[in-house]
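Model it.
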Amino acid sequence: MLFAMAQKTIFELDLIKLAKWHRRSTIAAITILISFVVVWIGTAIVLVYGMNTTSIDIGFWIFYILVMLVSAALVFPTHRAMGYGLFNSLLWAILAFLIPFLVLLSIASTAGLILKLSGAKVGMFGVSRANLDHIRPHHCRQCGYSREGLELFQECPECNRVPQVI
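Modeled.
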C-alpha cells in the first residue's frame, strides 16, 4: 500500500513535538496564502499600468521555489512526528513541491485532529503553551498530573479522570 497509515499509536507519539510542528505548518500555510494573494494583486497592478513584467516573472518564480522548499522542509518533520514512515514522509515532501499550500493545509489539519483526539485543546495556531502540560507523555490529559507508576486505566489521583482509549 503506497500511502499506509501511521506506524505508531497515539500513545506512542511525541505530542509535544507534534504540537510544535503543527503550529509551524499552520502558520506557514496562512503565510503562503497571504503571500500568494499579495503576489497576484501585485501582478494585476503591474499589468494594469503596463509595467515591465520580466522582473515580476523572475521574482514570482524565485518566490514560488522558496515556498516549495519551505513547505517541503515543514511537511517532512511534521509527517514524521505523526508517526508515519520515512517513505511516506518523503512522498508527502515531494508532493509539497507541487502543491505547497494544499499539502501544508492537509498536514496541519491531520496533526490538529491527532492532537484533538489525544485530549489537547487546539486553537487556530495549535496548542497553547499553557495546554502543553496536558499532552506530555505519562501525564493526565485533564490536569497534567504525572501518571508514572499508575496502571493504564487507573483514575488520576488528582482529578479522578479515567484515561480513554481512542
